[in-house]
Amino acid sequence: MKYVVIFLVSFCAVFTGFSQTGKVFDNLTIKSAILKMDRNYAVYLPPDYETSQREYPVLYLLHGLGDNHTGWIQFGEVQRLADAAIKDGSATPMVIVMPDANTKRIGYFNAVNGDWNYENFFFEEFIPQIEKTYRIKSEKRFRAISGLSMGGGGSFMYALHRPDLFSSACPLSAYIGPSSVDEAKESLTKLFNEPTLDESKLQTYCEHHNVLSLIENTSAEKLKSVKWFIDCGDDDFLYEGNSLVHIALRKKEIPHEFRIRNGAHTWTYWREALPVVLEFISNTFHQH
Fold it and tell me: Rounded CA gap, 285 and 260, in Å?
């Protein structure tokens, strides 16, 4: 009898250990009529997802230039960090969805010429399909967005374009968008693989894809409807742009958190940022 008790205690300990681990699936696809192709994505499911019937809040976590939907898994260690944050209570259990913006054409936005409409795909196909596939709460209050570098720019733009959809946005080391037509032309052709540009539309594109411009032209009421957390290293080459965003929000009296920590444009920096992001967005999911 003594050995049976020891076995049961050991088994329960092992089972509990397993139950505290979330699961990551990084080879998933969604069919897109808008983009006329299948798109990859990855998902993190919290430890109790398979043993409960509840619906979960969701974080859309965007990768940077040169990575894909597996970047946050491989280099950002999202499973380990999310598991630890959920276990210690600093983060609520949530589904984390990581789309791929690096197949064929690069970036999270619609092309200037209208021949590659990734942002339309994200809002019209991707989010609805994710919410059908997983047990996710579909209200604004339980939806957050974050990302690094190019994905930080994506999280800024998505929350500014659609503040009705996100309760919080956490751009990390974000590219804040082109400040001029010339900069837009260079970045779109060299970095984001746009083959041709309709230059007559570039000015409008710049205004719609620059964070400072969007802050200036968005009502304070809409800006305040999103909880903002902005983080950029003091040695990051994007430090100036993020600082200007902080100043613009201060001038417009928009509440936000702004963090400058020691570090550069590196995965070490972003791994350290992720637990803080998870805690911040969890606080917006909760009722106070």
Answer: 24
Contact 63, 71 (CB under 8 A): yes
Q: What is the rounded CA–CA span in Å between residue 54 and residue 50?
A: 10
3-state secondary structure of 15: helix
The tens digit of pLDDT for each residue in 178-226 reads 988 888 888 888 777 777 777 778 888 989 999 999 999 999 999 999 9
**8 Å CB contact between 41 and 100:** yes
HSE on the CB side for 284, CA within 13 Å?
A: 28
Q: Which of 183, 185, 182, 171 is nearest to 215 (CA)?
A: 171
Which fold would CATH assign to domain 22-285?
A: Rossmann fold (3.40.50)
Strand arrangement of the beta sheet that strand 168-172 belongs to: 23-32, 37-45, 95-99, 58-62, 143-148, 168-172, 227-233, 257-261
Residue 174 · residue 86 · CB < 8 Å: no
Domain boundaries, the chain: 22-285
* pTM for the full predicted model: 0.92
Other C-beta atoms lying within 10 Å of the C-beta of residue 261? 14
The radius of gyration of the chain from alpha carbons, rounded to an integer in Å, stands at 20
Contacts of 135 (CB under 8 A, 6+ apart): 49, 53, 54, 55, 56, 95
